[in-house]
Design brief:
Layout (H helix, E strand, L loop, with lengths): L2 H9 E12 L3 E5 L5 E8 L1 E6 L5 E4 L3 E4 L5 E5 L6 E10 L6 H4 L5 E3 L7 H16 L6 H18 L7 H6 L1 H12 L7 H7 L4 H12 L3 H19 L4 H7 L5 H12 L3 H7 L12 E2 L2
Antiparallel strand pairs: 1-8, 2-7, 2-10, 3-6, 3-8, 4-5, 4-7, 6-9
Helix pairs in contact: 3-4, 7-8
């Protein structure tokens, strides 16, 4: 598993949900703000998406839009013609766990159909479209939506040319090696020196480059990732605190609990008690106003 898919797997809650709809002009579906990550896939036809503070987007067949922070928006069309067929829905993420994936993405992530789009994303969209045309209630739709999310995120990160940020670190051959080491084995007693060795850099050079690129020091990122993994296990498993603590590199339950509370503001036991796999829902079809 690569770092991106690893992060998505740890932060995701439950399965995605979606709704296939057909609209004839004039139509206007409005979506309130939500904690979920919304998406729209235009299967046929075209429409316009308008989100607060963002320029309107004209969407055509094959276009896909992701709204990482669940921004309020509307989607509709007033041009009389062939109907528009959409797949709209949401992915749920645990936003109590801090990670650049949840903060670095734009309000509206638009991946337009065309030759510049990655072939892997087009393949995923084609498979999903064929499955929906064959059987909208197929059990394969959910797994295909999971794959679609990963390919959308990869397409966006691969298309970036910034020198800073989590995505830039992923693309950096040296920093990427260190990130993979952290994600592959969070329980390992990593130090700045050992991570620098993995990146084939001196301790000081590695620490400076890591901090300048990601905006946090290596040990800070390591601790946050360990707490992210621990939070998911507290929510999704019955493992004891000792087992969870050891799985993320703590030999002392007390030290683990202290680090966890510093990150989340509550003790691990309290977090487990209040955490739930359910998140605020996402209105998949919106409210139509003609």
């Amino acid at each position: 598993m690569d770092v991106l898919s690893d992060v998505v797997a740890e932060l995701r809650i439950g399965a995605p949900h979606s709704s296939r709809t057909e609209r004839r002009a004039p139509w206007d579906d409005r979506f309130p703000p939500t904690a979920a990550v919304g998406f729209h896939l235009v299967l046929r036809g075209g429409c316009r998406l308008t989100a607060a503070g963002q320029p309107p987007l004209r969407l055509g067949a094959g276009d896909v839009v992701l709204l990482p922070r669940g921004a309020a928006h509307s989607i509709g069309d007033h041009t009389v013609g062939a109907p528009t067929v959409l797949l709209c829905g949401a992915y749920r993420f645990d936003r109590s766990r801090r990670h650049p994936l949840l903060t670095e993405l734009p309000e509206v992530l638009h991946l337009a159909a065309g030759p510049r789009r990655p072939a892997a994303l087009d393949t995923a969209l084609d498979l999903l479209t064929r499955e929906l045309d064959t059987d909208p209630d197929s059990g394969a739709v959910g797994p295909l939506l999971e794959i679609l999310l990963l390919f959308m995120l990869r397409a966006w990160y691969d298309g970036r040319d910034r020198d800073t940020g989590w995505g830039a670190a992923l693309r950096d051959p040296d920093l990427g090696t260190a990130l993979r080491a952290i994600h592959r084995d969070p329980a390992h007693p990593w130090t700045v020196q050992s991570l620098g060795d993995r990146a084939h850099m001196s301790r000081s050079s590695f620490a400076q480059r890591f901090t300048e690129t990601l905006g946090v020091a290596p040990q800070t990122y390591l601790t946050r990732w360990r707490m992210t993994v621990a939070a998911r296990r507290l929510r999704d498993t019955d493992d004891t605190l000792r087992v969870i603590a050891e799985s993320v590199g703590y030999t002392s339950e007390y030290a683990f609990a202290k680090a966890f509370k510093r990150e989340f503001g509550v003790a691990p036991g309290r977090y487990r008690h209040t955490a739930t796999a359910a998140a605020p829902g996402y209105l998949a079809t919106g409210s139509t106003a003609e």
